[in-house]
């Protein structure tokens, strides 16, 4: 199957005034129609930057310094700003982490939804209003007619996130990037939002990039997983492969922090018993180790890990890890 | 409605306090009107002075004078000007329109110009315009009003005689009504620009800071993620939020604007309340001065109530918004 969105070897740097520091170093991801890619990793590892780079919305001082982002055959990094605006909110949309602040406080829900419909689909305001109402029904907001004329402060966090989803889905995008869409919401609402996203995805064949800390959500939602660490993609593969047979020590560390998550063989792995934690922290920007970036925190690290860049090892078809310690033999076997 | 009633009640209480305080303050000031009149007459006998005191009620105890004054105000009688030999109310009503014209013109000029400068410099915080705004604000803020006024007079009325030096209308009068309107506007330019100059600085700095803040917020990122053009992001999403502190400032500054008007009217010989206040202070014309203070207090209060209403209009989170009834019959309750 052709990926709908393909990020290849993405490099992002931040200009600190003195020098340009690398934020993302060679991130590669693929999204397929109707599938969900889970992007996981600790705080500060570059998940949001990957999303914002794809949207063309990197903050000031951040810029893409290399790689390519191909959406349905079109290189977004080469596209003109006007073309990017045509795609944004239309073929490619994003749901942000903070529903409390992501909606404009002085505009009604109706305005914030219809705006994007009028802009991209050239609909009259009456038609746009109908579609907005339909969208609110689709995201299962109670009393959609009333909500339409409400202001954001009159809605709960969960409802606001539903409105955000309605906005993101209003133009039937090919790709939705959801950056921790449920982090700010309570657990029951989280489950509802995930179910909603999955239902809507089934109807529309949208590809979802689900950015999250929560491996439980990944197990439930994702078809494929990419694990980021310190601006690098350290492991990627199908959800069964990653959660069932994690190849990178970092992924195993992340999983040992989440109870009752291991699938298949890993569930019986006696070594991975109990709740673990990964010692140390993600190094700050510009202080990344030269060789393996995870080496200082890795229990398996030896001299070579501290001295040389690890290779990208295919451990199984479609499953690869950036590590000296994974054996490629498995793939051969 | 009860909100408005409450506001009105507190406004009346405040007015009463203004009257009492001003009355007592004037009693504390050295000099009394009779001695000024006598001075101008070139001296008078003790008998005559006592007779004049009795005539004006100045021989009575202060608290009685105050009570009499309050009682008269309630009937709309603001007393008789010692100096102008006219009822104070007539005097004030003659001068009020000129002041309102000046103050409102200056305010509108300052707000529009200042906000535009603020917006454009916030768009490019490191650009030439941004630095210009900062310097212009500092100069405008630091320069005394009368100095700005005199400089403008020297340049635009004396060296390049484009605008008239003083007054509000041509002494020879105007044949047609539009001639008169033009004449007044022509006279209005310099005083209004002078009065506006201080506030342009305030508003440009304020709206620059507020727009910078708003442009960095999450909902602006959402607006960009919708694919809106920069123009629509700034004017459709950011401006209304950025204006909230500006509106607050208008309410707070209205009183100062009157204080500025006293100076500007004096420099430009503008026949308004400000110059009347200046003259009545010089002449110890207490009834006139008290009347002016009373009316300025009313104007400031009206301005505050208007700002409050505008505030509720701009920011839906403030004040009781009337919910539109858009729900068709049969919708969920
Ligand atoms: N506005 C900013 N200015 C400077 N550095 C930033 C800024 N935003 C993020 N960073 C840095 O960029 C790196 C990547 O951050 P990013 O926001 O992508 O992390 P993340 O994986 O999304 O983390 P989280 O899970 O906390 O959202 C981090 O090292 C972070 O410190
Ligand atoms: Mg993030």
UniProtKB/TrEMBL annotation, chain A:
Subcellular localization: Cell inner membrane
Its primary localisation, in coarse terms, equals: membrane
Q: Name one Pfam family in it.
A: ABC_tran
Keywords of the record, alphabetical order, are:
ATP-binding, Cell membrane, Membrane, Nucleotide-binding, Transport
Q: Which InterPro entries match?
A: AAA+_ATPase, ABC_Ni/Peptide_Import, ABC_transporter-like_ATP-bd, ABC_transporter-like_CS, Oligopep_ABC_C, P-loop_NTPase
On whether Transport is a keyword of this UniProt record, the answer is yes
Domain ABC transporter positions: 5-255
NCBIfam families in UniProt: oligo_HPY
Similarity field: Belongs to the ABC transporter superfamily.
UniProt-recorded name of the protein: ATP-binding cassette domain-containing protein
- Which species is this record about? Pseudooceanicola spongiae
Automatic annotation (TrEMBL), chain B:
Output the superkingdom of the source species.
Bacteria
Q: What keywords tag this UniProt record?
A: Cell membrane, Membrane, Transmembrane, Transmembrane helix, Transport
Q: Name one GO biological process term.
A: transmembrane transport
Q: Where primarily located?
A: membrane
Q: Which residues cross the membrane?
A: 98-120, 132-163, 175-201, 242-268, 288-311
What family is this? Belongs to the binding-protein-dependent transport system permease family.
| Name of protein | ABC transporter permease subunit
């Amino acid at each position: 199957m052709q990926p709908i969105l393909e990020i290849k070897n993405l490099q992002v740097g931040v200009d600190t005034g003195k020098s340009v520091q690398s934020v993302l170093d060679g991130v590669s991801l693929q999204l397929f129609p109707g599938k969900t890619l889970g992007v996981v990793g600790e705080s500060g590892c570059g998940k949001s930057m990957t999303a914002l780079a794809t949207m063309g919305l990197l903050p000031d001082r951040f810029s893409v310094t290399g790689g390519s982002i191909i959406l349905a055959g079109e290189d977004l990094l080469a596209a003109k700003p006007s073309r990017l605006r045509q795609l944004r909110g239309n073929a490619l949309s994003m749901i942000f982490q903070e529903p409390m602040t992501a909606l404009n406080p002085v505009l009604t829900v109706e305005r914030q939804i219809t705006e994007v419909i009028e802009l991209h689909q050239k609909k009259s305001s009456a038609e746009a209003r109908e579609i907005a109402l339909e969208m609110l029904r689709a995201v299962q907001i109670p009393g959609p007619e009333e909500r339409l004329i409400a202001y954001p402060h009159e809605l709960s966090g969960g409802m606001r996130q539903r409105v955000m989803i309605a906005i993101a889905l209003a133009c039937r995008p090919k790709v939705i990037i959801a950056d921790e869409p449920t982090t700010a919401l309570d657990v029951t609402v989280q489950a509802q939002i995930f179910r909603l996203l999955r239902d809507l995805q089934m109807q529309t064949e949208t590809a979802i990039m689900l950015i999250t800390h929560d491996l439980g959500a990944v197990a439930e939602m994702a078809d494929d997983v990419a694990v980021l660490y310190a601006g690098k993609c350290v492991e990627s593969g199908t959800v069964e492969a990653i959660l069932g047979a994690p190849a990178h020590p970092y992924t195993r560390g992340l999983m040992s922090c989440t109870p009752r998550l291991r699938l298949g063989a890993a569930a019986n792995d006696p070594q991975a018993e109990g709740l673990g934690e990964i010692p140390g922290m993600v190094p700050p920007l510009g202080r990344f180790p030269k060789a393996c970036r995870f080496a200082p925190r890795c229990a398996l690290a030896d001299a070579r890990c501290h001295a040389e860049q690890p290779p990208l090892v295919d451990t199984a078809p479609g499953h690869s890890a950036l590590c000296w310690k994974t054996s490629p033999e498995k793939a051969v076997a | 409605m009860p909100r408005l009633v409450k506001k009105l009640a507190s406004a009346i209480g405040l007015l009463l306090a203004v009257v009492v305080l001003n009355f007592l303050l004037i009693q504390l000031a050295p000099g009394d009107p009779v001695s000024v009149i006598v001075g101008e007459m070139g001296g008078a006998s003790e008998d005559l002075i006592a007779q004049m005191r009795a005539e004006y009620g100045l021989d009575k105890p202060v608290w009685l004078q105050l009570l009499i004054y309050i009682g008269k105000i309630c009937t709309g009688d603001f007393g008789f000007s010692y100096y102008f030999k006219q009822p104070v109310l007539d005097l004030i009503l003659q001068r009020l329109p000129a002041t309102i014209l000046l103050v409102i013109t200056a305010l509108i000029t300052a707000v529009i110009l200042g906000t535009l400068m603020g917006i454009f410099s916030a768009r490019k915080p490191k650009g030439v315009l941004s630095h210009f705004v900062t310097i212009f604000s500092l100069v405008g803020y630091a320069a005394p009003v009368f100095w700005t006024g005199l400089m403008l007079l020297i340049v635009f009325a004396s060296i390049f005689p484009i605008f008239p030096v003083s007054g509000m209308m041509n002494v020879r009068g105007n044949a047609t009504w539009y001639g008169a309107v033009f004449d007044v506007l022509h006279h209005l330019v310099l005083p209004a620009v002078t009065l506006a100059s201080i506030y342009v600085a305030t508003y440009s700095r304020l709206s620059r800071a507020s727009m910078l803040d708003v442009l960095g917020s999450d909902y602006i990122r959402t607006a960009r993620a919708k694919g809106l053009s920069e123009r629509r992001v700034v004017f459709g999403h950011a401006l209304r939020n950025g204006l909230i502190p500006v509106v607050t400032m208008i309410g707070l500054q209205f009183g100062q604007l009157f204080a500025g008007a006293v100076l500007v009217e004096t420099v430009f010989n503008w026949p308004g309340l400000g110059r009347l206040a200046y003259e009545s202070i010089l002449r110890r014309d207490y009834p006139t001065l008290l009347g002016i203070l009373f009316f300025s207090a009313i104007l400031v209060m009206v301005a505050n109530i208007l700002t409050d209403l505008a505030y509720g209009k701009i920011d839906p989170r403030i004040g009781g918004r009337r919910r539109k009834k858009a729900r068709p019959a049969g919708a969920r309750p």
